[in-house]
TrEMBL record:
CC terms in the record's Gene Ontology section: cytoplasm
One Pfam short name: Fer4_7
Protein name, UniProt field: YfhL family 4Fe-4S dicluster ferredoxin
Organism: Ostreibacterium oceani
NCBIfam families: di_4Fe-4S_YfhL
Species classification: Bacteria, Pseudomonadati, Pseudomonadota, Gammaproteobacteria, Cardiobacteriales
Amino acid sequence: MALHITDECINCDVCEPACPNQAIYQGEEIYEIDPNLCTECIGHYDVPQCQQVCPVDCIPINPNFIETKAELMAKFHRLHPNQKTG
């Protein structure tokens, strides 16, 4: 499951640097998350860091990108082939 940022985003800039996969970027109006890079922080942390730092709670699961924890871990290993899980 990738995450996504909703229209409630206030562009506070705290989520982008919190993402260990560099999946978050500034879109045309609000920050966006690349689902091909988002692992919900699996492999890095126990919980998604963007959700932890977001002051307006606008980062839910993206219903268009449902993935199992095993699929997210496989994505982590593809993105970071030389890194051990956190």
